[in-house]
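Subject: Acid phosphatase structure
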Amino acid sequence: MQVISPHAILLALTAIYMQFATAETVLGVYIYHRHGDRTPKILGSTALTALGYDEIFARGSYYHGRYINSSSSSQIHGISPSLVRLSQLNVSAPTDNVIQNSAAGWLQGLYPPAGQTANQTLSNGTSVQPPLNGFQLIPVSTLSSGSDSESSSWLQGVTGCQNAAISSNNYFSSPPYQSLLSSTKSLYQSLSPMINATFSLSDMSFKNAYTIWDLLNVASIHNSTQEYPALQGLNTSLMNQLFELANIHEYNLAYNSSDPVRGIAGAVLAGQVLQGLNNTITSRGSGNTLTVQFGSYATALSYFGLSDLTAASSNFTGIPDYASSMVWELVTNSSISDGFPSPSDIYVRFYFNNGTSAASADLTNYPLFNQSSLLLSWSDFVSSSQKFAVTSQDQWCQQCGNAGSSCAAISSSSSAATPSTSSDSSSGGISKAVAGVIGAMVTLGVVLGLEALVMLIGGIRLTIKRANVPSTPVTEKTVAGERP
């Protein structure tokens, strides 16, 4: 009997794996993206900076190379590689200066000017090139709710969810919070020379952990110690300490395992991801195959907790950096030469990149729902997400306990409503065993636009980024402390 060496077995297994990897096709993608560098939230009128514009454009260019470029192995199946086809793309952002402008800047990288490819010939034979070397105009869907979220000091301030606000407020009376409030008092008050232009002495405490760190983080990026001598005490060790405290503060306001409603923002995001990916499947790839949602960091923190990403890495309890992104890919190993694959042959893979804090621009794959596999079947992804996802406005109203006119109207009519469902897997939709999970989805943008609240983390070590600091201060108001 012939003995097969371990080396030969390894080579055979490697060949099988490579065959699978090279045969894999990306069918659709959902991206949740944080904005770029901005001015401090505490000062209001928050604006995207030149650095933030550059960061977000670079990330858009990265995703062009990954999902749009025809030479990429991860190109989305059937997507237009040079001229944008608007029917394939769905981009949304709340009515917020920072987030809207980030979306616009990102899209410039995703579909750069097309040059002569964008030319059109008129009936009289004249060739017309669009302005700016074929600059491509891509609309961003706007949401009126969640407006000015980057000027809001905390997550629940823009969710509109009463029970979530109550739950988050409960953190301020919890023993862990009270302990940190007391033990860090001297630390925060020692910051007075740097922040006394913005915070009163009574506000220099762990209660304002995020807004204090945010102000100093912006100052460390944009303001020189020559111009503002008070910032000389802002060393790396101090900033790391303040950042860790801000992480604790924000994560506990965004998620609590014993009170799931606190994570309502992440629950709505989960429902939106289900809806977006399901639309790709039910349309058999003929509709939106790339859905992109822009928002802030807090929704990401809620999703991290709800989806058990903290089991994959404790760093998922930290605030995602600027230009971070979460990605859900729909993939298949089935041949698509004979048509769109059935849902049973479709899988979901989750990625994260921690923006400007990541060591690499590339995405990192993490397991969702505390599972061992990095690749989930579509049915497993749906069933696991559905355990916490908010998939209708009626469900949102019930969880939030809101009694406003919109919730009252939905409640009175819900008993007569019949949710639509996908008929069968042969039509390219979800199989009947899974159809009920997604079929009841309504337009979740109506759910008070929680798109305004999201953000991410990953790479994954969270660090303070100080490279590429502009030599010119953003504005006199961004400083903490008096000018000399």
